[in-house]
């Protein structure tokens, strides 16, 4: 990283109490040259790490505010002088964690800033810690450092002399790395984007982790700063929203109220799965996910057995005729657009209900539900169900790029984010990534994972910003929409059928 002492000449800064501007050590031309060198360096080495702000944002008001900020910073420098690591209480606390609390364990320390990572590594080495390294966007091979820190999980042979005990990293290592040789994560500072906090813990909370618990330490802003920016409360609110959607039970703060577990969420607590018509698709994704999860938790072999089954399998279950819901056949298909669809046909070949959630409820069986012989007209009713789904799908997807029913997850997510982006158009958080993501939603069906996650955000009425972050995270993880190969060639597929058989 380039570094220099910034000095001023011909800068109009008004300081309180008669303070004077630091004496100029460079000419304006020198200062402009230096700025050009820094800009050129970042263009050459750090293009991926920074989003360049359009010139239209540089207004007179911004210039005025930057001038005031500069004056305030100069006052701080004049009053307190050079930074003294010996008086850095935050660094002292970090040293205590590494040298005392977890002195023999592997620890990964995350920070948002490369300068902070390098500073921490330098000072900790000076204090006598060994086996420590900093990894930033400027590191030649972040993956090599990950191997040295977590050789076992990466199946690498690393000598004891080369192996790292402490890894200090920016979020360059918060995605796509196996670091589960460790189970201790320290957030030296809290990121604004909640997905980053979860991804940091996710580097060690992975398959192969041998510890029962993941320990996450989070340094918080000083009390005075916290009162102004309320970072902790904002992050905690976002964590709670995330937990309600995906069932996470992580506790990033000691006094955090226990977050709702996955079991509570999907057992219809607080009416999450009430199944009103507008949210039918939302409930379908949630209910299907939980049925599948319960099944493979109870019998892990099903995780391989069920996907390996051929198409067009069928069975039947006992059915008690009640509430005017007749016996018949439930049909499950994948449409030509890659979406899941259900139909429920009565024994006369008529559709019982269009509510996908109610059909799912009718098909749901307990592990001990017995199978019965199929009715004589089972296959004929299945064929009528297939015809109905194909007809309805053709009406919804008559032209490429349409979003389906206005009650569907895909339509509602697209409209929500489009409206949100119209509101923040041109601002810093209006990124090219989220623009690409909503275009993907417009052009392609959602994956089942994104249906489940985004459906719960809709059900719980998460904020537009939270939904947008969830969409962007799914897009970056390639879990948002089906690609052309997954969608197929537009041919619908009958997956299975289930008879609802009244027994005399």
In terms of DSSP E residues, the strand content is 5-15%
Largest sheet: 5 strands, parallel
How many DSSP H or I helices? 18
Widest sheet: strand ordering: 2-3-1-4-5
* Mean pLDDT over all positions: 76
The string of secondary-structure elements, in order, is HHHEHEHEEHEHHHHHEEEHHHHHHHE
Question: Any overview of this molecule?
Answer:
This protein is an alpha/beta fold and 504 residues long. Helix content is 43%, strand content 10%. It has helices spanning 28-45, 60-80, 89-101, 114-126, 142-149, 194-202, 223-229, 231-246, 262-265, 280-298, 302-305, 356-363, 378-396, 409-423, 432-443, 448-459, 464-476, 484-487, and strands at residues 107-110, 132-135, 166-169, 184-187, 215-218, 313-318, 328-334, 340-346, 493-501. The strands form two sheets. The chain has a five-stranded parallel sheet with strand order 2-3-1-4-5, with helices on both faces. Helix 10 crosses helix 16 and helix 15 crosses helix 17. Residues 1-25, 245-249, 254-280 and 397-401 have low confidence and may be disordered.
